[in-house]
Amino acid sequence: MELNEFEFFRDATLQICSSLDIEKALFNCLQYIRSFIPASHVALSLFEPGSGSVVKMLIIDHLGGRKSLPPIPLSRDSAHDLRAMVATGRISTIEKLEDYPAAGFLSPYVDLANHSALIMDLGMEGKNIGAFIILAEGGAVFTKERAELASLLRGPLSIAMSNALRYDELEKLKDLLYAENRELSRALRRRFAGGEIIGAEFGLKQAMDMVRQVAPLDSPVILLGETGVGKEVVANAIHATSSRKDGPLVVVNCGAIPENLLDSELFGHEKGAFTGAIAQKRGYFERAAGGTIFLDEIGELPLQAQVRLLRVLQNKTVERVGGTKTIAVDVRIIAATHRDLEELVRTGAFREDLWFRLNVFPIVIPPLRDRLEDIPALAHHFIATKSKELKVYPQPSIAVEEIERLKAYHWPGNVRELENLIERELIHNLGKGSSGRLRFDHLQMPEKTEDAVLEHRNGSELITLEELVSRHIRRTLQNTNGRISGPRGAARLLGVNPHTLRSRMMKLGIPFKYS
């Protein structure tokens, strides 16, 4: 095919700029240049500033196969070789890839022993940002003439790479903005819809009295209770009735963040702090400045993150990963867990000094089975809210006998389980094309092993089951010298979670020390 360099440059540039999708643009470019330059694959790499390691690599073959590689850390020698190979203004050829150690990461995709390569630097404003690589079968296929022809593409490829980098950064910033807007919207919804907490005057009365006591202060609060009891709802109530109510409420699930990302997510990072950190990022603590941060499932934090959290509590400052600047943060901390932190302290899985810092004002939230009087109101609330979400009109009703069925259930999943059950029944009801009463016939009821009123063994005196439970707990506490948790605590002897036992003791009026 007769070669005209001007036409080659023009047509290749059109292919490179043919799509905002960099992978598609590279494939189009590969298909075009194959008519002039032997090529089985093309690859585009982005270098980490300073180190030379590959942050991003795209590999396209002539059949349309595409592969985006994760960050590729290189040894110091390999990084030096790679940086020297793609020094600004140079085009390098490799006759056999297997003789070049820095190309080892390509081995899963091409036969290094049977491929040669042409490597061309990409740069903008005198700075090297990456490399464009053409791979071809056979050795020493890239002649001087072919290398000079490929060099015509340096300009358009550099511009395309620079635009792709800026586009990726904008996408990440857009995602961050979306996440922050979502948090703000969620906080606003809670603020306007969460003024009334169901059970605040009944099953949650003692907990809500404590909320009212601590909300105006800036003291740390730790919420204790089983999974699904509504710890986030209580945290929102504390924030919404505090002097920080106009600031953000940032919710962090400590158990849902990968350990290798914890420091970055909690405290932020600087640009270039690690492979893939292409932009500065504020952590959750900075985003919560002037408001409240809710650390849910804090018992899941690894020890390394616990150390940094302790420093935040002590100094009220954070340092971004890769940064040297100390940033002051004015944040109130509310923590929550369903785990026995005292036991974790004893086993060394949770730092004792952090536990003492967090355990300033503990609030125990009782499980749903200990606040059965709240079930009717909760059921009607969830029917109303879920009917709106699912667009169920008219809103179904619930019979008294079904409420009694719900109250007889043991609720291992607590309020969250009740919410999910209501939603599931609404979906079933909608599928049947009915908007009548909800029924819970499939709900498995525990078998009754004793009546609510028992005959006292020493005579004809009758005592309630509640009184019997109270006496049994008191006797157990006498045997453990008042200790609730731990291997020899009352909770272990009674076979219940320490938080559940404390909640039951609160309801029964049994005094205890939180220790």
Folded structure, characterized:
There is one protein chain. The chain is of the alpha/beta class and 515 residues long. It folds into four domains: 5-166, GAF domain (Beta-Lactamase, 2-Layer Sandwich); 194-364, Rossmann fold, CATH 3.40.50; 368-431, Helicase, Ruva Protein, domain 3 (Orthogonal Bundle), CATH 1.10.8; 453-508, no CATH class. It is 41% helix and 15% strand. It has helices at 5-16, 22-33, 76-85, 144-151, 154-193, 205-214, 231-240, 262-267, 284-287, 303-315, 341-347, 352-358, 375-390, 400-408, 414-431, 465-479, 490-494, 498-508; strands at residues 41-47, 54-61, 66-69, 91-94, 115-124, 127-137, 221-224, 249-253, 292-296, 317-318, 327-328, 332-337, 362-364, 453-455, 462-464. A six-stranded antiparallel beta sheet has the order 3-2-1-6-5-4. Strands 8-9-12-7-13 form a five-stranded parallel beta sheet, sandwiched between helices.
Helix-strand layout with pairing:
Layout: H1 5-16, H2 22-33, E1 41-47, E2 54-61, E3 66-69, H3 76-85, E4 91-94, E5 115-124, E6 127-137, H4 144-151, H5 154-193, H6 205-214, E7 221-224, H7 231-240, E8 249-253, H8 262-267, H9 284-287, E9 292-296, H10 303-315, E10 317-318, E11 327-328, E12 332-337, H11 341-347, H12 352-358, E13 362-364, H13 375-390, H14 400-408, H15 414-431, E14 453-455, E15 462-464, H16 465-479, H17 490-494, H18 498-508
Parallel strand pairs: 7-12, 7-13, 8-9, 9-12
Antiparallel strand pairs: 1-2, 1-6, 2-3, 4-5, 5-6, 10-11, 14-15
